[in-house]
Design a protein that fits this description.
Elements lengths: L2 H28 L7 H24 L8 H23 L3 H24 L9
Length: about 130
């Protein structure tokens, strides 16, 4: 598979993953029973697995190591923060306020990750 194809799969998975996160967050805030649907609970895991596989495949094919590329290490650290905030937002937050705060913060982290990916700079605001 070509690098371009893998990159397109990766970007498509990023867009789907974020869209599903936003949708699930809205449903969480509304207390919607749709959150309990089987596809809502399984599809994000499938998409995120494809996202991770495409990311690792790209890194291997491009010989990019997080140990020698600070921008990639920054993305990985931010991804772990995004996952933690997402878990608080959608499952573990005790109150609606905590969940909402974590949901908004996770989106900020998502946009930071996207900025780093586009600029290859751990401080993407410098590119503005």
């Amino acid at each position: 598979m070509s690098i371009l194809t893998i990159k397109l799969v990766h970007i498509g998975c990023v867009l789907m993953s974020y869209s599903l996160f936003v949708l699930r967050g809205i449903w969480m805030l509304r207390g919607s029973p749709l959150l309990q649907r089987h596809w809502v609970r399984t599809t994000p895991h499938i998409v995120d697995t494809a996202l991770l596989i495409s990311a690792v495949t790209l890194a291997i094919q491009l010989s990019i190591s997080p140990l020698s590329n600070t921008w990639l290490m920054s993305k990985i650290v931010a991804l772990l923060l995004y996952i933690a905030l997402g878990t608080i937002a959608l499952k573990r937050g005790k109150t609606r306020t905590i969940r909402l705060s974590a949901w908004v913060a996770a989106q900020g982290v998502f946009f930071y990750i996207a900025g780093v990916a586009l600029t290859h700079d751990p401080q993407p605001w410098h590119a503005l």
